[in-house]
Structures are given as structure tokens and as C-alpha cells.
Design a protein that fits this description.
mainly alpha; 4 helices; 0% strand
Length: 105
Amino acid sequence: MDKSKRPFLKSKQSFRKRLPPIQSGDRISYRNMSLISRFISEQGKVLSRRVNRLTLKQQRLITMAIKQARILSLLPFLNNEKQFERAELTDRTTGLRTRMKRVYF
């Protein structure tokens, strides 16, 4: 049979089963920084469940562990590098404004 004559049959493709990001032996805790850091973006945001490929229960536990680690200051709330770059830019602009004011007075 032609492929055009059998529109509802799917092609047989092999697929690779994805490994779960959290193994059964891993404990989700605020002290397990190597595990927690995998689920945080570069900006310091908690990645979504779809991106992490976690179950609902695992995502809740990860979120709670991240929040506990932030409160205990094991993790930063924001990424310091981005914050430093913003501070540098504002210093430059305020410096120009003060120089301009000094010139006119």
C-alpha cells in the first residue's frame, strides 16, 4: 500500500526514554545544593515543571527547598552579577549628570 492510502497509521519511530532528573535515592533538601542548583535559571528563578521534567510532588519539594535555602542565605535571591552591572551603569549616568551640572554653574 502507498503511504497516501493509509493516512491514520503512524510511522514506527524508536524513542529514547528520558531519565528522570531526580533519582530515587536523591533526597530533596535545602542542604543538597548540587541538586537544587540544577533547577534554578541563570537569573535565579525557579524553572518550571515542564522544563525540569518533574512530577508535581517533586516540583513542590524543590520549590520549598529553594525557598528555605534562600531564607537561610545558602542561595542568593538574585544573581549578583546582573545587579552589579546595573549599579555600574547607574553610577556612570549619575556621574555624567553631576558633571554637567557643575559645568553650567
